[in-house]
Specification:
By secondary structure, this protein is α/β, with parallel strands linked by helices. It folds into 2 domains: about 5-110; about 145-355, Rossmann fold, CATH 3.40.50.1820. Helix content is about 45%, strand content about 15%. It has an 8-stranded mixed sheet, with helices on both faces. The longest helix has 27 residues, at about 5-30. The chain is globular. The termini are far apart. About 40% of the residues are buried.
């Protein structure tokens, strides 16, 4: 890319990345009583992005793929802002805010194929602490085109019961990688929730899988159709990629966090570590869990003090019950967290996964 082309791309890319960062900020800090104040704090990045789009002239044919990806990401970002501002102006309820924010991961999905091509996008999908590390950045630039068994992949003909997978582009089969299985919330999908974890998995070299529940949410009542599917997914991944059997994490947000308890506490669970986030908990979950499974099981609980859907006392109760049953519990209560996903905790969870010995390892690959 020559200097003129680089300037053309940057003129659109810079405001787009800023818009996506601020939408991520809104997603993290959303608390219904403070929504108006939160929106006032971010300014008007959507106007800046819209102006940048209006100033764009024709791009030459060699940049058409980049322009297509950027246009799709811009559409998603501007659509999200439009939904947020409409809710603000017309007094809509919190559900319309969540609907608007579902466009943010769609923008990430459209943008990600450029991470191996454009240094600013490469940095955007790294942990902020690594964005000045040229050696780390170099590991990923150009890597996306080298191996079809790495990057972002979809498995399953339908979203329901299928899964989305991310394998770091610098993956080599001679090194076992930790695996994170991340379960979406009640109205989500694996396709959307993948982006809550991708930056951190990419930065830390972890394999990331984001399944979608078989039904409209995880099997919290009635027959458990999801646990066998999660086991099948894990077996498929382990048959094709080298997974560290002592570092297999099951985590999830909201209903996904609750199902992390439901499925992960079963006696035959293959997961070595559990990390529920903003989850509901009932003492019966701990009382019914297999005693041998519970003994020394590493569990990392994260919950927001401002959670309006599942009050924080549920997490405090979970800590007490699980400790009494012999689990190795790490408890993190986030003062300014409502019922949203705290992406900044991912790095700490991966540090904990690395530092905390598994009480039991998954069975060897067949």
């Amino acid at each position: 890319m020559n200097e003129d082309d680089a300037e053309t791309v940057a003129a659109l890319l810079d405001p787009l990345l800023r818009a996506l960062e601020l939408l991520t900020f809104v997603s993290r800090h959303l608390h219904p009583p403070d929504f108006e104040e939160l929106m006032a704090s971010i300014g008007t990045p959507d106007e800046e992005l819209r102006s940048a789009l209006a100033r764009q002239s024709e791009w030459h044919e060699g940049l058409s793929g980049i322009r297509t990806a950027l246009d799709a990401a811009c559409d998603a970002a501007l659509g999200a802002f439009a939904g947020l501002r409409e809710t603000l102006q017309q007094g809509g309820d919190i559900r319309s805010v969540y609907r608007a924010l579902r466009l943010v991961p769609k923008g990430m999905e459209a943008l990600y194929p450029l991470a191996g091509l454009l240094p600013p996008v490469n940095r955007f999908f790294l942990d902020p602490s690594l964005r000045s590390d040229t050696e780390v950045q170099a590991r990923f630039l150009g890597a996306s085109a080298r191996d079809k068994n790495t990057g972002v992949m979809q498995f399953g003909e339908r979203e329901r019961g299928g899964f989305w997978l991310y394998v770091p582009e610098n993956y080599l089969a001679d090194r076992a990688r930790p695996l994170v299985m991340a379960l979406h919330g009640g109205s989500g999908t694996g396709r959307l929730f993948l982006w809550s974890w991708l930056r951190d998995a990419r930065s830390r070299g972890a394999i990331l899988v984001a399944p979608t529940s078989v039904g409209s949410t995880w099997a919290l009542m009635g027959p458990d159709v999801d646990t066998p599917n999660l086991t099948r997914i894990l077996e498929l991944i382990r048959s094709r990629w080298n997974v560290d059997v002592s570092r297999i994490l099951l985590t999830g947000m909201s209903d996904g966090g609750t199902f992390t308890y439901v499925s992960g506490l079963e006696a035959g669970s293959p997961f070595t570590h559990l990390a529920p986030v903003s989850a509901a908990f009932h003492p019966m979950l701990g009382q019914m869990a297999d005693a041998d499974r519970m003994r020394g099981l590493p569990i990392h609980i994260t919950h927001g003090a401002l959670d309006w859907m599942f009050p924080v006392e549920l997490a405090r109760q979970a800590q007490r019950v699980l400790l009494r049953r012999g689990a190795a519990v790490t408890y993190r209560e986030v003062e300014d967290l409502s019922h949203t996903y705290p992406r900044e905790v991912n790095g700490a969870v991966l540090d904990w996964l690395e530092a905390t010995p598994a009480r039991q390892a998954a069975p060897p690959r067949q």
